[in-house]
Amino acid sequence: MTLIMAHRGSSGTHPENTLPAFAEAVRAGADCIELDVHLTKDKHLVVIHDESVERTTNGKGLVRELTLEEIKKLDAGSWFAKKYQATKISTLQEVLNLLLQMQYRGILNIEIKTDKYHYPNIEAALSEVMQSRDWPFTYWYSSFNLESLRIMHEIEAEAQLDLILKKSRAKVEAALEIDFIEGIHPSYEWVQENLAMVGSYPKPIRPWTVNLYQSMIECMDLNVDGMFTDFPEKAHRVRSRIKR
Ligand code: G3P
Ligand code: MG
């Protein structure tokens, strides 16, 4: 079965990587929820996609140059729709609390966003939070940055680690050779251009970002292990139709 993985939460219907988007992903029955983590200037793990706050808030500047207090003053919802103006950037802990409150039992895919800037010790900070207790859901780590996964493997040998790539053939091959890489998260374009390899690749493949009906159907026909989508509710409709 192709897992439905809510990309940045239900980011097609709610402001990406925010509590409303994650709550909606849980409500929609996503099998997996993906989020992106960065480190603030004062070393707090926060959930946002970009290195800068500009695109998804009313603020300016880089996450690594802002304190959590400064980040918490920003409006992370209005850019998407006015009714989300009270929405803030969340810490990872706040998202974990929401998932606990909502009794989420799926998978949490934490993307370590170190491909443009490698926050020193972000892996250790992340692992400390995730290993601080048992969770009623499963969690996986992924990254575009193989070095982050290598560091994470040293810290948390049992953790599931997936390598993200756009179309890099070198990464597709590296993932095959490195034992601690469980699977690959390539772009959907890579899947379309490498159909033969998709059928024979021995590790799980979970493409992003799959938003159109036709693309969802193709992923399910190819029986890829998962698909990241901004529209988990829609993906559920497609999957139940295919099952019938
Ligand atoms: O993990 C899949 C996907 O999230 C990778 O791309 O840029 O949306 O984080 P991006
Ligand atoms: Mg991501």
UniProtKB/TrEMBL annotation:
* Family annotation (PROSITE patterns): GP_PDE
Q: Which CDD domains match?
A: GDPD_TtGDE_like (cd08563)
Superkingdom per UniProt: Bacteria
Against InterPro entries, the record matches this protein to: GP_PDE_dom (IPR030395), PLC-like_Pdiesterase_TIM-brl (IPR017946)
Alphabetical list of Pfam families matching this protein = GDPD
Q: Which residues form the GP-PDE domain?
A: 2-239
Q: Which Gene3D superfamilies match?
A: Phosphatidylinositol (PI) phosphodiesterase (3.20.20.190)
Where exactly are the transmembrane stretches of this chain? none
UniProt name for this protein: Glycerophosphoryl diester phosphodiesterase
Lineage of source species: Bacteria, Bacillati, Bacillota, Bacilli, Lactobacillales
